Amino acid sequence: MTGPVSAQDPAQPPQVIDYEGSDYQQRFWEQGGRAYEDLAERIALRKLLPPTGRRLVEFGAAFGRLADLYVGYEQVLLLDYSRSLLRQAQGRLGVGGRFVYVAANLYKLPLAVGVVDSAVMVRVMHHLADVPAALAQIRRSLAPGGVFVAEYASKRHLKSIARHALRRQDWSPYDPDPYEFVPLNFDFHPAWMSEQLAAAGFRIDRELAVSHFRLPLLKRLVPAPTLAAMDGAVQQVGALWKLTPSVFVRCVAPGARPASLPTELFQCPECTGALAQAEDALECVSCGRRWSTRDGLYDFKEPLG
Fold first, then answer.
1. Around Cβ 15, how many Cβ atoms within 10 Å?
2. Residue 224: is its pLDDT beyond 60?
3. CB within 8 A of 95, min separation 6: which ones?
4. In Å, how far from its chain's centre is CA 276?
5. Is the whole-model pTM more than 0.90?
6. What fold, for 13-263?
7. How much is the pLDDT for 96?
8. DSSP E strand boundaries for 14-170
């Protein structure tokens, strides 16, 4: 069923889209004709993300497509709901070293409070049925003064405006409410998204409009690097109107940056208790739940046993 997103039942946890076992890397990126989008998003991320830092987490990191952009960070947490995509990331990037692989639910993050000084979330927001709940979790994990770079799919882009004016779509791009065009796929109004970020405790520092030229004909006629360079040249001015299908936002958590970050990365995602190492698992000292740590993957999707 498509249409405006319905209110979430507070008694039920939000649904989570699961890419477990999918061919997302090959089908969507390597064979999907999205070289232009990949390059344009990288340009935006380089503009917004601090080039260096102590610890960064990417929410929805999948197979680690953007991991090479984090070379200036001492430690990088790649977090995704799909174990299989994280295994692909391990195959590309290796196990150990700077990278930490975490399988987890964004609505129940296992990250300790204030544990990262930078966070990235690209091509994930459009899958979130409960944006405020997810943003609250992200805000909790970010240290004071930390930076959160987020991307979201905008409903108020030129194509949807034109289709609405020609009566070829029945939903309005000007309606502030999110629009669910297929199950667990949402477009958001920029004003609504700004309100949610502010309500979560973030201060918007800078915005960029991205993917101005996401048109099949242009992508066939113009080489992807050239098209992406053109996009990069207008991302800043385009943010004045935000009429693109993708918008990037740099947010800052209030407060002064701490001298150091917590040494313990994780807490129990169910009860927020402290975790202790126990063979190939982390065990919660409060509720007793055990979480797998096999083969370099911290698995918080569900407890062992």
1. 14
2. yes
3. 101, 295, 296
4. 28
5. yes
6. Rossmann fold (3.40.50)
7. 81
8. 53-59, 73-80, 99-103, 116-121, 142-153
